[in-house]
Amino acid sequence: MNSMMKKAITICLSLCLILAMTLTVEAKYVPKQWRCKTCNKTCTSYGYDPKYGGVTQTQNAGNYCPVCKEIVPAGEVHMYMWDFDRYYFLCDSSSGKHKNYQDRVFYHDFEQPVSEHYTNGIRDF
């Protein structure tokens, strides 16, 4: 009976782990639109690279912090970070402005909201 109980608990925990992993998968790809720089036609993305890069910004005392929307007090330093996703586009315009395939391919980086905000090394949210 004891081994049967261990097997049931193991199966239950395995199912819980599988369920937790499926719920934490990143959101599905949603195409975005952006204008071609060459011919100004609106194009739809064909793929993307999530969290392609990130940016860290620091505001010293006396400067405005756009995250907490206040002037950084004396003796404090505010640091905040955000990621961006790179979306890839292929212009399908029949315009003569595109001389070859390389002219038709382009990308655009879309910023995500600020993910972290620190004050003197302490995370604020």
Describe the structure.
By secondary structure, the chain is an alpha+beta fold. The protein has two helices and eight strands, in the order H-E-E-E-E-E-H-E-E-E. It has helices at about 1-25, 100-105, and strands at about 35, 40-60, 65, 70, 75-90, 105-110, 115-120, 120-125. The strands form two sheets. Strands 1, 2, 5, 6, 7 and 8 form a six-stranded antiparallel beta sheet that branches. It has a two-stranded antiparallel sheet with strand order 3-4. The protein is flat and about 65 Å long. It starts with a helix and ends with a strand.
Radius of gyration: 24 Å
Estimate what percentage of residues fall within beta strands.
Answer: 35-45%
- What portion of residues is helical? 10-25%
Output mean pLDDT.
83
Q: Spell the H/E element sequence.
A: HEEEEEHEEE
Tally the beta strands: 8
- Residue windows where pLDDT falls under 50 for at least 5 positions: none
Distance between the termini: 48 Å
Give the class from helix and strand content and strand pairing: alpha+beta
Coarse morphology:
flat
Q: Given the structure, what is the number of helices?
A: 2
Main beta sheet: 6 strands, antiparallel
